[in-house]
Write a structure and sequence with these properties.
The protein is 60% helix and 2% strand. By secondary structure, it is an all-alpha fold.
């Protein structure tokens, strides 16, 4: 049976979506110095990993998560808790590396579960749907035999008609329905939240990955669980849940905007660089390895002079540099 989510588009929902759109545009238009974008992104990833694991009871502070994210160690913390954070950071890197993926498949879901659950689950199997019944408080998820077909229906909707909705709504519905199915024995919350984030990434809602929506969920865990349970217990209407997610994203963007303003206030004497879409695409290309001018032309679908026009300000501001000879030279990130 096809998945067909039931919800109403309320005035409150529309007001929130409009406010979010304004905030998002303001953030994307901000004159953020390019060297600070990776810093804001790393901060958001650490906040996301800390918040999503904290919802499940992980005790690490944001500072401790940042230490682990930078390759350090936190003495006195159980290995299990470290694995939970490191695994979640790995899952965020995975979705960042696959941000342009058009179709999310069952294989992707199972891989995310393996990444998130390695040495960090109470119940197995790892990377497979549960072969047993589970309960979540007073909620009884579907029987194990029904899980594969329910997940197939969800993914068919996500990759099909779900793409006609705004990214916020698709992400919210994906998140809720995944938790309702509860396909794994353990780790469902973390996988569901990273899937919701992936949907925002791949729909280009968070271009630089500097938002941490899970932080809003973590600030009031009981409200988060109650919003989910209200849908699961009724199994009918997602309106309240979508409104809740919109409120969380609105709060997240407000926080992100404040952090950007702090960055700007501290860097007022430095010339700012505003990236064009083609420059953003080029920087993403250069993340993996140096590339030549011909490959840049093909990737940006532009002429050789056009490619040099995109490169010129990036080279001027010491973001990109050229290595090698005149004819064989390639461009790489500084």
């Amino acid at each position: 049976m096809a998945f067909n989510p039931a919800y109403k588009v309320t005035a409150h929902m529309l007001q929130l979506i409009e406010k979010i759109a304004i905030l998002k545009t303001k953030i994307e238009s901000a004159t953020i110095s390019v060297p600070w974008i990776p810093s804001l992104s790393r901060d958001a990833l650490s906040r996301t990993a800390r918040s999503s694991t904290a919802i499940e009871g992980n005790p690490l502070t944001l500072k401790e998560v940042q230490i682990l994210a930078d390759g350090g160690d936190v003495p006195g913390i159980k290995d299990r808790h470290k694995h939970e954070v490191l695994n979640y950071l790995a899952s965020l890197r995975f979705i960042s590396d696959h941000v342009d993926k058009k179709i999310i498949s069952e294989k992707d879901i199972l891989r995310l579960h393996r990444i998130i659950g390695k040495n960090a689950l109470d119940r197995e199997p790892l990377g497979e749907y549960r072969p047993y019944e589970v309960s979540v408080g007073n909620y009884q998820p579907p029987l194990p035999d029904d899980v594969p077909s329910l997940m197939a229906d969800l993914l068919e909707w996500l990759n099909g008609t779900g793409q006609k909705l705004p990214a916020i709504m698709t992400s919210a519905i994906l998140h809720c329905q995944f938790e309702t199915i509860h396909p794994f024995g353990d780790g469902n919350g973390r996988v569901g939240r990273v899937l919701a984030t992936w949907e925002l990434y791949r729909r280009h809602f968070d271009i630089h990955h500097i938002f941490a929506v899970d932080e809003a969920y973590c600030e009031n865990r009981q409200l988060y669980y109650r919003a989910l349970y209200n849908v699961q217990s009724k199994q009918v209407d997602l309106t309240g849940w979508i409104e809740y997610v919109c409120e969380a994203i609105d709060m997240t963007l407000e926080q992100a905007w404040k952090r950007i303003q702090l960055v700007q206030a501290g860097k007022t004497g430095e010339e700012k660089v505003i990236l064009t879409p083609k420059q953003e695409a080029l920087l993403k290309l250069l993340r993996n390895e140096p590339v030549g001018i011909k490959e840049i032309q093909n990737h940006l679908k532009t002429t050789k002079p056009g490619a040099h026009f995109v490169l010129k300000p990036l080279i001027k501001h010491n973001i990109v540099t050229r290595i090698g000879g005149y004819k064989t030279g390639k461009y790489t990130l500084v």
